Amino acid sequence: MLAFKLAIKNLIGAGLRTWLNVFVLSLALVMIVFQSGIIHGWDVQARIDTTEWAIGGGEYWHDNYDPYDPLTLDDGHGLLPPELSGLYNDGQAAPVLVTQASVYPEGRMRNIILKGIDPDQKIIKLPSSQMAGDTSVINALIGTRMANATKLNKDDLVAVRWRDENGTFDATEIRIAGIFRTNVPEIDNNQIWIPLDRLRKITGLEDNATYVILKQGITSIPTVPGWIFKDRDSLLSDIESIIKAKSIGGIVMYIILLSLALLAVFDTQVLSIFRREKEIGTYIALGMTRWQVVRLFTVEGAMHSVLSIFAAAIWGTPLLFLVAKYGFAMPKATEGYGLTIAEKIFPVYALGTIIVMTLIILITTTIVSFIPSRKIAGMNPTEALRGKVQ
Amino acid sequence: MKNTIIYFIITSIVSPLFSQPSGKEILNLIDKNLAAGTRIMTAKMIISGARGSRTIEFKTWAEGEERAFTEYTNPPREKGTKMLKLEDKLWIFSPSTDRIIQITGQMLRQSVMGSDLSYEDMMEDPDLTSHYNASVIASDTVQGRDCWVLQLNAAGEGEAYEVRKIWVDRERFVPLREELFGKSGKLLKRTQLSEVTRIQGRWYPMKIVFKDMLKAGDGTQFIIETLRLDDPVPENIFSKASLK
After folding, report:
1. Among B128, B176, B172, B181, which Cα is nearest to B149's?
2. Chain B touched by A68 (CB under 8 Å)
């Protein structure tokens, strides 16, 4: 208790030096909490957005379909089996047919993926109802990324060329009935959505689908021969991998931040012991053992972290709260990265992360305070009292 | 006398119909005129787009329709790029990457050097007689030459184009224009062939203009500068080793 009281007294007495260390440590703590909150918030948002916009409660893929291999698209579709037709008719699923095509915006050819979905579907947030209506022309839906890439606007007519199931070319003009904004590039980049029945008709793939999106919360997952069920977790594994990679990158950042702060504490401790030799000698002369003095200096150093936690709570909490409330705006360029990132990320601060980071700061500060303090154990008290450098 | 006049009128109307070869015969006559054992040519491709035009020069060695090797010689950026076609396979070598890539799947739909011609157009089986039912549907004049207009309807499923129309020079049996239509009847591509020249006893179009009708621009001109037919081509030309 004596060590604790003396430590507080000495720290306060040190004035600006103490508060600078406390501020640097609190800055490291707040930054670490903020960054981990951003990554966690991104993870949460990406999962929610991808689920709502693209994958619903999971997907059935045709056996031959591989979204990463366009070569599979020619064979990666099949007749919708009765089990999945039943779900579709009950409004529990939305079949999607995928084919390759070329679009000619402003007379330039661009290879794209043409997707067909029921305009009346309510399984994902894609505003497919915009494709309903006038049937004299094929109404299409594109995302903002695709619209930017092709410079297409709402109500524009654009030529699209495709091959039917036998490989015969055909072309027609489609109307851009709507442009949607989503954080999920996998339903936007290089894709055009048209009504499922129209795509089936022009390709000759009647009643076919490439994959089927299930409604969220669906519990009955039948086994369907020729179709593979992909649950939400497996469909989100890409996001998980990206977040994991970002988290590892974040740890490097934490280490750098923390190291800088701890270096300041270490430096302060070394300077303290050098400048306070007479004080150390006096402590020993008054009856304290060398290790009691070591403990005093270690507690003094460690108290920086305790004060920094309070400081972080005082200035960091409102700041982190404000960012969590209003979000952290991401640069416009991130939209083109092909990652599911919202325009604004709302950080999610995990209590576990805050506790762990606080403990890490407490422990590491104690260690870096102890290391220079060990020198006291080897000091000659008489020499120390005389203030002779040892 | 009256009967003689009627006879002459009838024969003058009917006899051209009987003397007109069938669509298949015309296609065979085209093949007979154009098909050579080997072809060695230097040519250039003028690609016109929205941002102007550019010229690519190349040399091609071809044997029948199955094997062809092309080396781009100009401009310097494309120089050294080589392409090898062996039956239904196509490889391309780019000196900038120093790699040989097989063009398959969706890559076949890419345009060749930004032209109006796609790789799959190049890979198309030129034997039209076995894939299409040809019929003469009209007569027309193209480039001042009398032509038969052939309509080719796909004989079965799986042809890239459902309908083709070919304007064939009646005397020289050289196609002077070709139009390719989609399943719905939409015109997709047009090819115009001109500057027909007599080479080693055959009539050859020395200038071909390909136009993707959905694309903007004036299309791609393909101009043959020199052409030698039935000259021996070393066997090693048609191997992947010649790409590097």
Report:
1. B176
2. no
